[in-house]
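For the sake of transparency, this paper describes our internal protein records without simplification. Because each token names a local backbone shape, the row as a whole describes the fold. One such record is reproduced below, unchanged from the form in which we store it.
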Amino acid sequence: MKLWWQKNWKKLALISGALLLLFVTTLGFLGWQIYRDSKELLQNLKSPTQIDAKITQSLNSDIDKLFSVLNLPIAGQVIKVFGLDFSPIKSEIQALISSSPTLVGDVGAKRYLISFQNSAEARGTGGILGAYALIELDKGSLKVLRTGSNASLYGISLTEIPITMPAEFLKLYGKNPAILQNSNLSPHFPYGAQIWMGLWKKKYGEQLDGVIAVDPTALSYILTATGEIRLKSGEKITSENVVEETLKNAYERYEKDNDARKQYLVDIMNATAAKLTTGEYSKIKMAKALRDGVKANRILIYSTNKDAQEKLAEVKLGGYLTLEANNEYRAVIQNIDASKLDYYLDRSVVIESKSCEKEKETQVRIRVTNTLKTGVGLSPYVLTRADKGKPSSLVTGAHRFKVFIYGPTNARLISVSRENRTADLGGASIERKRPIYVADVDLAPGDSEELLANFSGGLGNITFVDQPLVQETKISIKDKC
């Protein structure tokens, strides 16, 4: 009679290898020795009789125990007992497994910029680059070469974008992305990653191999696995408080010393890195954390390796505005006043089919709300109004930003409207074959506005890709076709 693991060794190896490689390749701060163990495990798949010993050697105790005591089919049991349903990111796991040797330096050392995006100041891929780390991966071993805040990178700003961009990109964003703070205006992550790398090369003469982007919310997921971290000051940072501390409270605490606030972010990043490299955390909780980060578009990867990038382009991790036919919609916020008020921005989106004829018609409504009750007492840095053409009389806590509503590939924008407004409706543009409605919004504390865009076209079921800001978008899809 065959033992359970002998009958299920293929499932077991696939799932365990996927979990390991998922968090090895998504964050440069994880225990890279796991990569070598999982690689060895996957190389021995042709010898099922060796799987049990390999699992015992390579997986930490909680996963060992899980796989050794369960008697029912492994996938169903993992989902039922631990909530590890990885079906929503099955494609991401497959892409990472196939490209891991390249991504983690198995065929030569790789250097990556890790961008810690500040989602209190919205950009297309999430938030402005706030802190960073430069890491090197060589045959699965990790070196953190340097860390810092965006203050040390401000010199990486040019009058021209350092890489050749499409004409439509320049028409939409101008030369603003030549400034480090604005490099990731587009929600198409490869654009931002390539510009960051181009600026880095101009500044330091170093050609990087890719970019990994995360944000404070993704970090909160990670801290559910590692547990709290302690700073040298003795302060405890946990999964429950890290977003509020980094994106809200720090601006009040360091109101008169912005450099100290930025160093505070770096200290949190370094403390997290130190904890992760020990490997002393629950692998199951870490797998859950990274699954949730990927699902929410809060972990993104770009690689200069063509084969690896082609695989990433097909999944969430790549952060692509795909050119393939689809029925995908997006609502993207672009902070234009340099404030940190996107921490208080609430978004709700309703996408509804209006016609199911040969060429579908779909309506997108977004309501944006400044949930701040009053701006009085907030740090001047949080309340910054550096936007051009701002009103001469400003309401404290008013926030100005642009709303970009994206339709599907090759669709058409057929009409727009704004709540209580018949003039200054905004304009239309195109990015990567996507029609866009662009509007300028300025909201006082407590105010909201609804914007509406009607599109013609789209193929397949309606989908929506959320921009990862502090508050997730409330989304309602009414697909009648």
About this structure: Residues 1-75 have pLDDT under 50 and may be disordered. The first helix runs from residue 4 to 7. The chain has three domains: 4-103, 110-303, 324-478. The CA atoms of residues 109 and 138 lie 4 Å apart.
